[in-house]
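User: I'm new to structure prediction. If I give you an amino acid sequence, what do you actually give back? Let's try with this one:
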Amino acid sequence: MNLVFEINGSRRSLGNVPCHATLLSVLRDRLGLLGTKEGCGVGECGACTVLLDGEPVNACLTAAWKAAGRNVITIEGLATEGLHPVQEAFVDSGAIQCGFCTPGMIMSTYALLKRSACPDVEDIKSALAGNLCRCTGYKQILDAVRAAAAKMDRTHDDEVSGG
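Assistant: Good question. You get back a string of structure tokens that encode the predicted 3D arrangement of the chain. For your 163 residues, that looks like this:
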């Protein structure tokens, strides 16, 4: 099938995409966007989280054809000129230990902060419930989300490449 969609602000057209291909395989194998990770492959860990029309989805479970005509943002799409405030907050808070879960955590955080500028701890936990981390114990991640909320509030970040 031919797949036409917007990825990180650029319209792309990919031919010969198998109908059984996942969005994750298209991102990594066809587009070389390696920031989105495959962790479990069954939607349990959140390492593959990307935004589809602004909503977090597990790219390992999302059929590539579901992205047709839609907007996809990956971790690479957040940083347009230097790190995005959410990425900065994760670095500054020590929430990136091994880094494997980080792209998914950041994408889920970004989606949360677009919906709620000042989430409480329960909102944060709910938004990150589909993302697993084996290194941080989550305290640094919660700190990072709160710091990102403060950074985004100060910068009034309204747009991402194509977002």
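You can read the tokens as a compact description of the fold. Here is one thing that stands out. The chain has six helices and five strands.
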